[in-house]
Amino acid sequence: MTEIVVESVGVARSFERGNRTIEALAPATCRVRAGDRIALMGPSGSGKSTLLHLMAGLDQPSAGEIRWPMLRGPDTLRPGKVAVVFQSPSLMPALSVVENVELPLILGDTPGNTRGAAMDTLTRVGLAELAKKLPEELSGGQAQRVAMARAMAVRPQLFLADEPTGQLDQSTGKALIDCLLEWLAGSRTALVIATHDPAVAERMTDVWRMDHGRLLPPIVGDER
């Protein structure tokens, strides 16, 4: 039986805004298994980021339960088991490119040569020559590739990406997804990527759709 990396059982998330309750995510039940390649699609405000943040353990549900059967408990998720790439690169401005990529390796007490592992990952994304640059010296596309390299470097079991190509031009975004999928080839790392781009979704195995905070039944393979 394929191992379950993360599952949600009736997970919901609501926020209080003044005297109103905003339902960001209606009760959702889903499973992500090792090796999955899932595109999460839906318009802005449909709940995609909310669901990803819950899967990452960055937020707590208002109802229901989220579990990580393969990864044990939420206290063990980061930096080594779950990696998240956000819409904006979120790099540490005072650290160089290679130091940004190396940081989760150091925080996770990764054995061996962490600087060498960081450089290897930068080479994979084609940015080794920028290793000593600061984030402010990078273009938007370069910074997002560094953020992708930082997530890749820890070799996570669950890779979550929230619109990683949303602020990139078409060719740069395609190159970023090419690099990610090449790195994942043959891997049991599960990938969930939130995207507006049908071209990105077409490269995944499964497509999940969200609308007004509701997770709709998944569309699998050629049925999409």
Describe the structure.
The model has no long low-confidence stretch (mean pLDDT 89). This protein has 224 residues and is an alpha/beta fold. It has two domains: 4-81 and 156-223, Rossmann fold; 96-153. Strands 3, 5, 6, 7, 8, 9 and 10 form a seven-stranded mixed beta sheet that branches. It has a three-stranded antiparallel beta sheet with strand order 2-1-4, with helices on one face. Helices cover 28% and strands 28% of the residues.
List the helices and strands and how they pair.
Elements lengths: L3 E14 L2 E14 L3 E5 L6 H8 L7 E5 L14 E4 L11 H11 L6 H11 L15 H14 L4 E5 L7 H15 L5 E5 L3 H4 L4 E6 L2 E2 L3 E2 L4
Parallel strand pairs: 3-7, 3-8, 5-6, 6-7
Antiparallel strand pairs: 1-2, 1-4, 8-9, 8-10
